[in-house]
Write a structure and sequence with these properties.
The complex is a heterodimer of chains A (about 425) and B (about 425). Chain A has 15 helices and 13 strands. Chain A has about 425 residues and is an alpha+beta fold. With about 425 residues, chain B is of the alpha+beta class. Chain B has 2 domains: about 5-235, Metalloenzyme, LuxS/M16 peptidase-like (Cytochrome Bc1 Complex, Chain A, domain 1); about 250-425, Cytochrome Bc1 Complex, Chain A, domain 1. Chain B is globular. Classes of the chains: A alpha+beta (about 425), B alpha+beta (about 425). Chains A and B meet through helix 2, strand 5, helix 4, helix 10 and strand 11 of A and helix 2, helix 4, helix 9 and helix 11 of B.
Chain lengths: ~425, ~425
Amino acid sequence: MKEYTQSLGEGIEFVSIVEPKFKTTNISAVLLLPCQPEKFAEWALIPNLLLNSCEKYPTIAQMSEKLQELYGAYLDNSISLIADTWQMRLLVNVIGDDYALEGEKLRQEAASLLLECILHPNLEHEKNAFAESAFRTEQQELLDVIQNEINNKRSYAVKQARKTIFQNEPNACPLYGTTEEVMALKSENVYQAYQEILKRAQILIYYVGSEEAPELPELFRNAFAERKAPEISVQNPSPCKAEPVTVSDSMNIGQCQLIMAFKADQVQQEAARMCSLMFGGAPFSLLFSNVREKMSLCYYCSSNIVYGKNTMIVTSGVAQENLEKARDEILNQLEIMQKGQFEDSLLTDARRYLINALRLTGDTPSSCASEAFERFLRSDHAGVEERIRLYENLTKQDIIDTAKSFKLDTVYMLTQKGAEQA
Amino acid sequence: MSERIQEIIADPQGGQSCLHVKHQTGLDIYIMEMLDFHSAYALFGTKYGSVNTMFRLDGEQDFAQVPEGIAHFLEHKLFENEDTGAFEQYAKTGAIANAYTSFDRTAYLFMCSENFNPSLEILLNFVQHPYFTQETVDKEQGIIAQEIRMNEDEPGWKLFFNSLKCMYQKHPVRIGIAGTVESIQEINADLLYRCYHTFYNLHNMVLSVAGNIKAEEVLEICDRLLIPSEDHKLEQVFPEEPYEVYQHEVIDTAPVGVPLFSLDFKLKPKSGAELLKSELLAELAFDTLFSASTEIYQTMLEENLINFGFGADSPFTGNGFFTVGVGGESRNPREVRRRVFEVIENAKKNGFDQQAFERLRKAKYGSMIRSLNSVESNASMMLDCYMCGIRPFAPASVLAGITYQEALQFLRDEINTENTVLSVVHAPEDEI
């Protein structure tokens, strides 16, 4: 694999990852801005407005036709929060030029299409706004997305819990805005927000393909003006509440959701990740072995770290009558970690598991781009092997200290409607 | 014992090849060396899923009828051996392991970037050494009950199984993969052993591995660890399923946002090469009629009758069942049904957009190339091909030979708008 990073001007970086074994070309643009929760709704509308149509392909039908012609290429997007930074990712994926049946230059076509989408959206120029029909369609789509958040009970419960876990922080705010906010949006305001993002955001371009793409840096340099990109902060620890807070909602469901958040004042990233893995991140972890396997309380009980927030979240689906038992056992298992009452083999197993997972990086285009992006977030150049050494150096005492630093902050329960009175 | 037989199967389009070995123990082994990758992926599977509920072996007089969900239960329990669990063993190699049960198969898998050989030894060992006691069976019931509850709270799952229940009157595809909280209470250690010895016979199984591995080393481990088994001449019974659907519409409620719907067409079941071609024809025909590039999609989107979630579903096929359909979200699914029927009847009469058909065939070719990009998808592809009774890479060559006329003929002969089920799941407060 050959990788290099090139600055395309202030605030814009191009990363090229060439790996001959890949049969596809992946080009993604990541745009980063400090969180502004009051803008979440309008920002959320932008990625779909950019990728579902553009000036050249002004309807979803025309855009789809173009993608089909490119051997089923796809445009994809996501928005997310990394600590208190808002991220929008726009991506195009197409098969490698070697597999084009008629010698088409698919990489160049894909790169041009992505830029076409980002720079030349489907507009009503005279109104300085996105085309009304596209805007209305995307607005309705976003309203549906918000309405559908209830469908997946586990992720819905986590979203609800985050309102309490990150109270008064941007992470408590709904990433897609609220129904009311989305309904109140105006096409011209969203267009202004789009221009603002394009002008201000820190931009990272990732190319992952089977051969060098010398034309791409120039193409993207010409596309984006230099900018004084705002300070991006991806380490924004969330303060732990003085006393743990318990919140519950109810719904007509068969299985209750239990969400528990633990916070630390200060935590070393690798130690926190290892600690969470040993606690509830693998089939040999304490939560899996005890809450699921020994006590048969649930099908899943797992933990993960929220990047940059010093927060560990445990999620579990349990029967109403076992909610308390599960909560107590999760706390009990954390205490076991804090007292160091776990087998030494748990650490060696977790270390092996993590190292194995890290070395899988490089076998898919998306993991290559993610790894490069994570290095950007950490502001270092440590490759996989250097990071593995960090994990290898962690001691049992490091894990005990990290576990001790986590304090219970929030318990959220989504319970069965009607059962609470029983 | 006979010698193993092996052949190399090549993929002219993707430029890859794999080794197929018929091992002397009866096991089919597929190996794809991908030495420029770091990782390796292995699947050990059996043709045993939730639909295999009635069977007997050569010499047995009566057919056994087993509780719903037992194949999935067995998958859970096989991870426990007498002294230790498979997960504990994998923890010593670092491999990421899992398993799944579907309608017609169960597969145990792991992925790793190092220690492939010891992980493969763990896989072959634990799958071949069952250990069930009533105590461990009882313990698992609580875990699986929660898995069932989790699925029941998933509206897409509800939508799908409601449709299957209306589509199939007798075929066991209509029952849930994990069974029900009640049916799993009937499962005991003896029943698990009976099912295990029936279906976990190497003549009924496959090992598929891909990635940074050496075929010779894989075969050496297989030679050492595979336990020869006799072909029991497994006989299975599936109830005779009428062609007609049982019920044309099923409307259910759950806490959901926009109403979800699926409109599924029941087709005559097929198998082997005929099934493969029919699946591709069905997929291409439905994509041509209902993809985002079509007029019906654009119109329904503009009228807010559908959202971007609308589209053709991949054909759902197996031993004795074959469906294809469209689905998504709509506040008026009956109107969507009316328009979908209209488009199909019109296409049957007047044909459909040939250019669109060719574009979508190109897109399908692209998605096949894309799926060769990872060790995981290659290993899964080889397992899928074995389960369907076709050779690896066969789908790409069949796709290349498919014509517009064949797709149109398939639509005319096989797609019947009177043999469909509309399944809807909506919030209790909404009206449909």
